[in-house]
Write a structure and sequence with these properties.
Blueprint: H1 13-40, H2 45-52, H3 56-68, H4 84-94, E1 98-102, H5 109-127, E2 133-136, E3 158-161, H6 176-187, E4 190-192, H7 203-211, H8 213-223, E5 227-230, H9 238-242, H10 249-257, E6 262-264, E7 267-269, H11 289-292, E8 297-301, H12 308-316, E9 322-326, H13 327-333
Parallel strand pairs: 1-9, 2-3, 2-5, 3-4, 5-8, 8-9
Antiparallel strand pairs: 6-7
Length: 337
């Protein structure tokens, strides 16, 4: 079989690729035409479908894809917030500087992370400026923020890792390496990495790593950040660490036995938001909870049923200054039923 011919078909690979490219271009053209008819000329989905000789369902799908691909960008010129009352209650009840409440998303965990990241991105866009230092935590939600930074204003800001990374990375892992790079790329700023694992095998190894000049300097820069973006873990998040950190199931059980309800950047805390005294704490390469709490603006983005308990504890312990969460979680935190 010739190298350029695909298995299972008579069309050469190059011709198949060309056909796929033509179909892709045709679909993009249809998206653009449907978008102009609907958004610029005010045609309904049905009217646009008739004009393009398509079904209404097809036009609806094309318009959704056009928004997802950025062909259509919607700007809302109002300060009205759909969950303003919940945000005011959260600020008042928990002493926050700001609360951002978002809808639940499409009903999936990944969808919720995406809308939470969108809310956190809106805050970052508002506060970013030249010489701002932003600490970036280990979080699958925070890692999604750059997706929502669509051509933001350029800023000579520095984005620095708040904690070390999981050994196993890749898309969706939440590793600070990828996130800090993506933030810096979006704003034209600088990325500074913490080249170390998040949890190592012994306190001695951790101490040696923390004495390394490069790691020590990065931790100093993170501690001096103007704003931090972090997620919050819960009791059921051991799998995230087990995939790439030196922590065993037995150690996780010990943490739970010591009263652990959550963590921020692998800094585990109890129901009062206080640090858990465990050997793992001495093996983390990252800011301590006390140093984290000295960062003036601490944005935590998290939501969903498994995050209510750790968020309550983090709020009780003064870990959060800006909370980004979904409406259902906000009501749970406020005991609104």
């Amino acid at each position: 079989m010739p190298a350029e011919t695909a298995q299972g078909g008579g069309m050469p690979w190059k011709e198949q690729q060309g056909e796929r490219d033509r179909r892709s271009a045709s679909t993009l053209d249809l998206m653009a035409r449907a978008a102009r008819l609907h958004y610029e000329f005010g045609l309904t989905h049905e009217e646009a479908a008739e004009a393009l000789s398509l079904s209404r369902v097809k036009v609806t799908r094309l318009l959704k894809q056009a928004r997802e691909l950025g062909i259509v960008k919607i700007t809302i010129t109002t300060d009205a917030r759909p969950f303003g009352e919940l945000e005011e209650r959260l600020v008042g009840d928990f002493g926050l500087t700001e609360a951002i409440v978002v809808p639940y998303g499409n009903g999936t965990e990944d969808g919720l992370r995406s809308v939470l990241a969108q809310g956190a991105a809106s805050y970052l866009i508002r506060v970013v400026r030249d010489d701002l230092v932003v600490a970036v935590g280990l979080s699958r939600t925070i890692a999604k923020i750059p997706k929502w930074l669509d051509n933001p204003r350029r800023a000579r800001a520095t984005f620095v890792s708040l904690v070390g990374a999981l050994r196993i990375g890749g898309a969706g892992s939440g590793n600070p390496y990828q996130a800090t790079d993506a933030f810096a790329t979006a704003f034209g700023g600088i990325a500074e990495h913490l080249h170390a694992p998040v949890i190592v095998r012994s306190a001695e190894v951790a101490e040696e790593l923390r004495r390394d000049p490069g790691i020590a300097q990065t931790l100093e820069h993170a501690a001096a950040a103007d704003v931090a973006f972090a997620g919050v873990g819960g009791r059921d998040d051991r799998i995230s660490f087990a995939q790439g950190a030196d922590i065993s199931a037995a150690e996780w059980d010990e943490l739970l036995g010591a009263g652990m309800v959550g963590d921020v950047g692998a800094r585990f805390f109890d129901r009062d938001g206080l640090s858990i005294d465990h050997d793992i704490s001495r093996r983390v390469i990252g800011l301590s909870l006390d140093l984290f709490k000295k960062i003036p603006n601490r944005v935590v983005a998290a939501g969903g049923p498994t995050k209510t308990e750790p968020l309550e504890a983090a709020l009780r312990g003064g870990i959060i200054t800006v909370l980004v969460t979904d409406a259902s979680t906000a009501r749970s935190l406020l005991k609104l039923g």
